Amino acid sequence: MAVSCVAFLALSLSLPLLLLVAWKRWRWGRAARHVIVVVLGDVGRSPRMQYHALSLAKCGFSVTILGFSNSKPRDELLQSDRIRIVSLTEIRRFAVGPHILQYGVKVVFQAVHLLWKLLCREPAAYIFLQNPPGLPAIAVCWFAGCLCGSKLVIDWHNYGYSIMGLVHGPSHPIVLLAKWYEKLFGRLSHLNLCVTNAMREDLVENWGIKAMTVYDKPASFFKETPLNLQHQLFMKLSRTYSAFRARSEPSDLVMERSAFTERDSQSGMVTHLCRRPALLVSSTSWTEDEDFSILLEALEKFEQLIVDGESLPSLVCAITGKGPLKEYYSRLICQKHFQHIQVCTPWLEAEDYPLLLGSADLGVCLHRSSSGLDLPMKVVDMFGCCLPVCAVNFQCLHELVKHEENGLVFEDSEELAAQLQMLFSKFPDPTGKLNQFRKNLQESEQLRWDESWKQTVFPLIMDT
After folding, report:
1. Is the pTM here over 0.90, yes or no?
2. Answer CATH for 227-443 from 3.20.20.70, 3.40.50.150, 3.40.50.2000, 3.40.50.10140
3. Distances (CA, A) of 392 to 306, 364, 369, 403
4. 341: part of which helix (H) or strand (E)?
5. What is the DSSP letter of 363?
6. Are domains 33-41+81-217+447-464 and 227-443 of this chain identical in fold?
7. Among candidates 399, 360, 338, 137, which has minimal Cα distance to 259?
8. Where are the alpha helices (DSSP H) in 150-190?
9. For the packed helices 160-168 and 173-186, what is the interaxial angle rounded to 10 degrees?
10. Contacts of 117 (CB under 8 A, 6+ apart)
11. Residues of the chain with pLDDT under 70
């Protein structure tokens, strides 16, 4: 009797422990195949983090994305049964009190809100964090990882303090605090990725952080757009933007015409117009690290060359994107009185953006890295579409743009205007320099994101 009582007591005491161990094993078994991707910004405008999520899902992970829902992400994310997007609440600065107080309230709210969202999720093996913005996300994700047993992976796109320095100045107390914060908490991550070799070297030398360079690569949907899809896109855009509308109506009623193409509605055949304008595209977040006055001044010089009798095509310049300085530059554009150039600033649906790049004749990039250490992803996308690029020069641009091979590098509006004149001098003659750059891009083997991710990131997270 005594033996049976002892056995019953031992079983009673051990059963909860066994159940707890079984429950923990079940929870962490689930966690091993779950990843949380954190973007303290707009998910729809964070393509690299969207690509991370898609690649993780394709490798069998379930993925939860935490971020702001200001614009629509790619359809692949929305349709994946392995990816769930959880919206974070975005708080704007209050209109009362000193700016430092407004900023402090915003940071505290974001920290508490993000921590709550992280702890409410099922356990994750990894937390993937985009930096910038890293304040307060790095510390919050690290703390949540400590509580839940998750490993923190920071993907360094740039330095947050350097972007803040464009607005406040490099010696502002907030900027210095942000730099100290990034350096301190950045060292607590388990794995660090970065976008250039220059940034990798800087992280090691000045921050004591070892990182792996993972270059941005174009996704598979960035490619040259077939002519029939070009026409559909131009007709769609022409309903909103006059720059894409036909300059004259076709004499034959069976023909449907845009500014660049026409389609025979009976045969369905699409052709380029004989004297079509050239299509120049640029994309931007309309922030301080991109000076679009350079492009506008270059366009003025290009216009003057046409007026002076140079054999150059008219231009349609489409600048896509949203951001704080869009209204400022829109006013500048309205003050220009171009006769041979039309400038429009469309906001495109996610699916239309690669189609526009694949339909364009030339891309222009005005991104100057605030740190000098990151590369413009817009150029990566343009190269994926075999679109030649003119890009403003900065410290590590050579890691992406090879001058005179896949595009041209310029320093100011004078140099850009001269490049536009040279590239469009024989337009659309296939023997021109513009088409030679396009052929170079077509002939080069461009590794796509999925292939590159499996070769670089996947082995790293499996070993971490």
Report:
1. no
2. 3.40.50.2000
3. 24, 8, 10, 11
4. strand 341-344
5. E
6. yes
7. 360
8. 160-168, 173-186
9. 180
10. 66, 86, 88
11. 1-31, 92-97, 99, 251-252
